[in-house]
Write a structure and sequence with these properties.
The protein is of the alpha/beta class. It has a domain of 158 residues. The chain is built from 13 helices and 19 strands. The strands form five sheets. The protein has a nine-stranded mixed β-sheet with strand order 3-6-7-10-9-11-12-13-14, with helices on both faces. Strands 1, 15, 16 and 17 form a four-stranded mixed β-sheet that branches. A two-stranded antiparallel sheet has the order 2-8. Strand 11, helix 2 and strand 12 form a beta-alpha-beta unit. The protein is globular.
């Protein structure tokens, strides 16, 4: 588990080792976007205790899942499992549910609860609510669908993907849950001790064995292979499961994971305080850095960095070198007079530089990771996370879920005041605290216990893929990359045998932005787990319905997403096609790019 404050306590938050350019063996597998669908999933986290180098040993190869047919549906109302109540069972006809206009096949929908109880803390009824969807034509696989945000809702268990068939369409039996509280209990559930722990990790650990037993009852056999996936908080669920529940899953897919979510949430409050310094009013932080002004910075980034990968195409693939080449204070247009939308003031440039450098205390101790400069900061989602979320989402999350002891409900009457008045020098340390009935700190129950020791996952032949957008406005890809650096160091530069990280240029939080954000992450994971085909690249394409895809891009543009730390470099051929690029080690010290 990681800590902030640069060594007080030990184990500082990850800052990406941008000088790192390890040479990677080239593999032959290239998973195309059309091959199958992407699932929202999760990955892991950071600090390490040294493990012995493993060299190029051959890890266990898991066998492929075998298909089956649904044997029971309506009779599942009688399914018996400890502390479990089935509340409804229904057979859903083929085509009654669709995904992207495509019909989903016949399946059995089962809803229920686990561990229902009356809280001795607040007198409310809590339970872990769940839904399972069991396809008639089954692929022999189970998928745990980790959901986002503060949970509290049972999102339909479809296993939705980014560009392709859903998990249910691919034949997975899919589980979704509310993680132990309902929507009306958000965000005050964080004051209830057990609800905190269920949200953090215990709901996943409780539900998974039950789900496998339900699958056995439905198909007369259990799943051959089990996977977990999710984006954002669902990505965090995935990364935590990789460390806590490696024996329960064979594959882990994390998208834009909130790996160190309490740290990131505190950083959001700190960020709001910085933006307020240059905003026209603290009630509208977006006035600190308007869409027009964000475009100025994006253009400056492209001017310096666009051609670093060999092609000026509106994308920055070589982010490592770009961070060395670009300086917002030097390269963005500076106002000589009044702020008029064509330039940025000295104070704005200072705040932008500080926010991207990462949240810090007044005595310069790190709270959370830096963020890379990327032209995707123009997207509306980036602005929503930076300027809207601190008041509406991060303030109550920090106050009730991540702070120990939690804040009083009265802060709900002035969340803006709570965010702007949050003293990171004294209050941020409470994400590491325990107190009375709160026996685990939020950094304990929200993060993996030892995120860079994944011996159990590795030794049993399980695999992990983590995907993160370079312009994520809330959870930094630098944090994720630094986790992988530490993981790789733990395993003697050999973590690629079981875990791979892919960064998506221009992509915001989970999806969106000027990016090729449609990719076959789940298909690649299944191929790696069950066939031993390690993904050297994921071919990603644009979403034609994405309004933030530039008009001068082809609606079929595709790019290779490369295994970190490699980056895509243009070789020759059609600049709109992934096959015209190759994955190479980043070249430090390249001359500045020009558009």
């Amino acid at each position: 588990m990681s800590h902030f404050f640069d060594g007080s306590p030990p184990g500082s938050p990850r800052q990406r080792n941008r000088s790192l350019a390890r040479s990677r063996p080239r593999l032959t597998a290239m998973i195309g976007a059309a091959a199958a669908s992407l699932f929202l999933v999760a990955g892991l986290a950071s600090p390490a205790t040294a493990a012995p180098p493993r060299g190029e040993e051959t890890l266990q190869q898991l066998s492929a899942a075998q298909p089956g047919t649904l044997q029971e549906c309506e009779t599942l109302t009688a399914f018996a499992y400890p502390s479990t109540t089935i509340t409804s069972v229904a057979r859903i006809a083929a085509g009654a549910v669709t995904n992207g206009g495509r019909p989903i096949g016949e399946h059995c929908q089962v809803r229920g609860t686990m561990n229902e109880r009356v809280s001795t803390f607040d007198g409310q009824i809590y339970a872990i609510g769940f839904e399972m969807r069991l396809p008639t034509d089954w692929a022999g696989r189970f998928l745990y669908q980790g959901n986002g945000g503060l949970d509290g809702a049972i999102v339909p268990a479809l296993g939705l993907t980014r560009g392709g068939e859903s998990g249910l369409q691919m034949g997975f039996a899919v589980l979704s849950s509310d993680a132990g509280h309902n929507g009306s209990q958000n965000p005050l559930f964080g004051r209830e001790p057990q609800a905190r722990l269920d949200y953090g990790y215990q709901a996943v650990g409780t539900l998974t064995p039950m789900a496998k037993a339900l699958i056995t009852a439905a198909y007369d056999r259990g799943p051959d292979r089990s996977y977990i996936t999710g984006g954002s908080n669902g990505g965090r669920h995935t990364m935590v499961a990789a460390a806590r529940y490696a024996d329960q899953f064979d594959g882990f897919l994390a998208i834009s994971p909130g790996f160190n979510l309490p740290q990131a949430a505190v950083a959001q409050l700190w960020g709001a305080q910085q933006w307020a310094r240059v905003a026209a009013t603290s009630t509208d932080l977006a006035t600190a850095f308007t869409p027009t002004e964000r475009t100025l910075v994006a253009e400056a980034i492209l001017s310096r960095c666009d051609a670093l990968d060999g092609l000026a195409d509106g994308m920055v693939h070589n982010s490592e070198t770009c961070q060395q080449a670009f300086s917002v204070k030097r390269d963005a247009p500076r106002c000589k007079g009044e702020r008029d939308g064509t330039c940025l003031t000295k104070d704005q440039l200072t705040v932008i530089e500080e926010v991207f450098a990462g949240a810090r205390t007044s005595n310069n101790k790190t709270i959370y990771s830096s963020f890379p400069f990327d032209p995707g900061l123009t997207q509306t989602g980036w602005a929503g996370w930076k300027f809207g979320s601190p008041y509406t989402r991060d303030a109550p999350a920090v106050g009730f879920i991540f702070t120990t002891p939690p804040a009083e409900p009265s802060i709900l009457s002035d969340l803006r005041g709570y965010a702007l008045g949050f003293d990171v020098d004294t209050e941020a340390a409470k994400i590491y605290a325990t107190s009375g009935i709160y026996t685990e700190s939020s950094m304990s129950f929200m993060t993996p216990p030892d995120p860079t020791r994944l011996d159990s996952l590795r030794d049993r032949g399980a695999k992990m893929i983590v995907i993160h957008g370079a312009s994520d406005g809330v959870f930094s890809p630098d944090d994720t990359a630094a986790w992988f650096d530490e993981l790789d160091q733990t395993y003697g530069d050999d973590a690629e045998q079981f875990a791979r990280y892919f960064e998506v240029p221009g992509m915001g939080h989970v999806a969106g932005g000027p990016a090729t954000d449609q990719h076959a992450g789940l298909a690649a994971l299944v191929a790696w787990v069950e066939q031993g085909i390690a993904p050297d690249q994921l071919v990603a394409s644009v979403n034609p319905a994405n309004p933030e895809v530039p008009a001068n891009w082809s609606p079929t543009r595709s790019r290779p997403l490369c295994v970190y730390p490699q980056v895509a470099e243009y070789v020759s051929g059609d600049p709109e096609t992934a096959s015209s690029f190759a994955c190479e080690d980043p070249k430090p010290g390249l001359a500045y790019g020009t558009r």
